[in-house]
Amino acid sequence: MVVDTELTDDEVDRIFRALADATRRDIIRRTLVEETSVSELAGTYDMSFAAVSKHVAVLEGAGLVTKHPYGRERRVRGNPEAIRRAQRLLDAYEQIWRNRIGRLDALLDEPRSTD
Amino acid sequence: MVVDTELTDDEVDRIFRALADATRRDIIRRTLVEETSVSELAGTYDMSFAAVSKHVAVLEGAGLVTKHPYGRERRVRGNPEAIRRAQRLLDAYEQIWRNRIGRLDALLDEPRSTD
DNA sequence: AGTATCTACAACCATTTGGTTATACGTTAC
DNA sequence: GTAACGTATAACCAAATGGTTGTAGATACT
pLDDT tens, A50-76? Predict the structure, then answer.
């Protein structure tokens, strides 16, 4: 079952942009390991709670994390499916490269396993 | 031979940031297929040559493309190695997730192949 | 009820980004 | 030599980003 994640340019923009910040990448790491409240996250970074809250919002907007109310907390959970989606995006470039190699081989009339 | 691409936060920032723009992603695609001069690239986007030149500079700064002088042209070439480096970055998150699963299994005292 | 905690959000600010036009320089063509 | 082409870069501008403080709403604690 190929889900065919047809992502818009805007969605892809958001995913990579969200990944382009060390604090946000750290939040992803931590929340992939275990669900963590926003204030718990904020406690370990050298910036205001509001700043961390914004980072979480950026990650949420990109689908890289989800938030789950738990009492007065909002627990943040890393979304491995979104990570895989990003991986597939990069795989596409890798594939373009491999296809190119295949085409060059064809030009050189030098048959080779194309997998 | 594991090269152990020890990337700094800044370098990782630049890579994902460079990927967070549709025009730049298109330039990567095109230059992975074949080396292309900056003006040739610029000809197909609805923006000035200078804007495209800047996009190429951003990609170059992230290591995603390289430029090669050829007469008065600068030919842009996609760098598949940098793409793979980005893939490895995402793989690391995937791995964190998989490790988590392993740990949960351990908690549940439900042994399973840990690869 | 009253207080402390967790969160969201607005307003603000400095810096960066993504675009523009204009200028300058090296290379090719005539 | 001069004109045309390919490129880089500076100066400029609007919008987005990443931070701040302050305010206010829910929820939990006593």
Answer: 999 999 999 999 999 999 999 999 999
Cβ contact A18:A61 at 8 Å: yes
Please report, for residues B4, B5, B42, B63, the alpha-carbon distance to residue B1 in angstroms, rounded to integers and kept in the order given. 9, 12, 39, 21
Tell me which nucleotides of strand C come within 7 A of a protein CB. Answer: 5-11, 17-22, 26-28
Cα(A81)–Cα(A87) distance, integer angstroms: 10
Q: List the domain boundaries for chain B.
A: 9-79
Tell me the chain B residues in contact with residue A55 when contact means C-beta distances shorter than 8 Å: none
Cβ of A17 within 8 Å of Cβ of B20? The answer is: yes
Q: A94–B84: do the CB atoms touch at under 8 Å?
A: yes
* CATH for B9-79 (1.10.10.10, 3.30.565.10, 2.60.40.10, 1.10.340.30): 1.10.10.10
* C-beta of residue A64 within 8 angstroms of C-beta of residue A87: no
Whether the pLDDT of residue B112 is over 60: the answer is no
| Nearest C-alpha in A relative to B84 | A94
The CATH class of the A9-107 domain is mainly alpha
| Nucleotides of D strand lying within 7 Å of any protein CB atom | 5-11, 17-22, 25-28
